[in-house]
Request: fold
Amino acid sequence: MKIVVCIKQVPETQDVRLDPVTHTLKREGIKSIINPFDLYALEEGLRVKESQGGTVTVLTMGPPQAEEALREALGLGADAAVLLSDRAFAGADTWATALTLAKAVEKLGGADLIFTGKQAIDGDTAQVGPMMASIMNISLASWARKVSFNTAGKAEVERLLDHGYDAVEVDLPALISVTKEINEPRLPSFKAKLKAKKEPIPVWGLADLGLNAAEVGLAGSFTQVVKVFPPPARGTSETWEGSPQDLAARLWQRLQEMT
Amino acid sequence: MDYLLTEEQTMLQDLARQITEERIKPIRAQLDEEEIFPTEIIKDLAQADLCGVIIPEEYGGLGLGAMENCLVGEALATGCVGVATTFGASLLGSYPLLYYGTDAQKSRYLPRLAKGEALAAFCLTEPQAGSDAGAILTTAVKDGDSYVLNGTKQWITNAGEAEIYTVIALTDPAKGARGASALLVEKGDPGISFGKKEQKMGIRASVTREVILEDCRIPKDRLLSKEGMGFIITMKTLDMARPGVGASAVGLAQAALDEAAAFAKERQQFGTPIFSFQAVQHLLANMATKLEAARALVYSVARFIDTKPKDFSKASAMAKVFATDMAMEVTVDAVQVMGGHGYMREYPVEKMMRDAKILQIFEGTNQIMRNVIGLALNKEYSKKK
Ligand SMILES: Cc1cc2nc3c(=O)[nH]c(=O)nc-3n(C[C@H](O)[C@H](O)[C@H](O)COP(=O)(O)OP(=O)(O)OC[C@H]3O[C@@H](n4cnc5c(N)ncnc54)[C@H](O)[C@@H]3O)c2cc1C
Ligand SMILES: Cc1cc2nc3c(=O)[nH]c(=O)nc-3n(C[C@H](O)[C@H](O)[C@H](O)COP(=O)(O)OP(=O)(O)OC[C@H]3O[C@@H](n4cnc5c(N)ncnc54)[C@H](O)[C@@H]3O)c2cc1C
Reply:
């Protein structure tokens, strides 16, 4: 089984701060981590490899320092890694990101399974995986909480929904985006980390992927960020003090006034 | 302080610290309160390759030395000495095999130990033989192709959980301590059973039980080295292991200092953080100074051991006695700095203080450590005359 896992390097913060002038994320002084959902995607890739045999290759598109994320993934047990980095890729929207990643999978000789996270904690669109599947014209199962394989060689995927789950069967090749319910990511191992330090990581740019500058990065993006702003504060808040009984009575009254 | 660790050592330390932060600290209070054996944490350590730090690469380990082992032990002890003791006791049970095992014996057990699929235990102490280990009564009688063991080992760490038991028993009782041998007993062998789980003051995540041997028959190739080598093997094993106890003490004291100092910054009395009182600062200053001295000693001894010296009993005993006395003092002072909060089970330092005590007792009490050092000094100064 040829498995590809797409990982994104994101700032380690829930509190995304924006530069009011350039509308880009303020990254200074914030540590970069692997998008948490992508650790689950990687873990699932490694588990499928362990049960079905095969190889796991991790891909990321990002600036040169995204190599750290790939080394971390190798330390967790991935077999190989490729960094997609080129000035031309900068400013990519979700479509341009998905196209670049899809081309890279093609250059790897295709994959039986591609795992992505459900969403990135910074961009938060949850679009890259589904767009890759549509560009590559392969099956898609998003929000997976369980993946298994049947004797017909198809993947059986349970998709997490708000109430319960959807059970779907998909043909391979397939792209599966995963939720945190799917597994418990492993710790790195010392031997894999040692190996990861020395492992060469190829860097592929525009020319390597056979793309032209108009298809990628800002130029290849259908969407443009016009304005970025923090959400308006949600009304005012009040602090009440009193006995539990008084507070409950006041709250009940207020709720009745609101409806 | 910069101890000039290699890049590899730093990586190993980081990994052990990551496990401590993510997997040990969140559950240590529960492991202590409910006396739960840390099975999952051992699996995590195994998965990260940390169970085989000192096991040669050909048997699936990392093939590293005493220094790396100490770095891992220290990191684990910042989280929970009960976990660090479980880890350390398995090493204690493995050293005889590592240093005296045949290739066949090593191939049978070391790969499973390296992978963390099996833990080991070291069985020396008996009800009447504590510090006076030469007073053991357990016997191993040769019978055809077997040895038959009889006796009771007391307070054995990992008993019941371990797969491999290194037992010190008399093969020639007439010769007393010179007639002792080291033998490998497996959990599944006929005639081995375990006593009830002891209820302890501290390190409650670790398990301590009796190992009862009743006509326990094992193949004769389970003998380590030769008959009569039991106490030589025991001394070497303890010499190897003692700096590890020192490393646990250093990790524990570091954790206690961190808790106390952070608390002193937050806690206000008389309108100012208690950190600003000179009396509190002096307590913290003494804690930090002793801790650093102990760490420097433990690392130096571990590095010395890695140069493969012939005799390192004295150095090893020094690392154990100094670091563990230090940890007892520092944890007591950490509680003092935190006042009533330090005494409450809501905060981690009361557990640290309880955990510190055992480090002065097992693997040779600190009185016995001083005997070892004194004996070595006596020899040295006799020669110099
Ligand atoms: C309209 C718009 C304009 C943007 N403009 C800019 C801009 O000008 N400059 C800029 O820096 N950013 C820009 N971004 C952000 C950037 O496009 C997105 O971060 C990126 O496309 C991924 O989208 P996402 O973060 O929402 O990921 P999601 O779609 O939420 O991610 C889902 C999964 O896809 C995979 N994935 C996502 N991104 C990558 C990647 N790079 N490499 C490997 N795998 C990946 C991961 O597995 C991830 O879990 C823009 C985003 C949008 C929506
Ligand atoms: C939690 C725990 C785990 C243990 N794990 C193991 C294990 O895995 N394997 C194992 O074999 N054993 C184990 N032990 C046993 C441990 O090694 C002994 O408790 C220790 O060696 C001391 O023996 P003792 O308790 O019988 O004390 P004793 O020998 O009875 O000593 C009592 C006191 O007398 C002092 N004393 C004794 N002799 C002298 C002397 N000659 N000079 C000066 N002072 C002296 C001691 O220092 C001590 O203060 C464990 C013990 C505990 C409590």
About this structure: Chain A has one domain: 2-258.
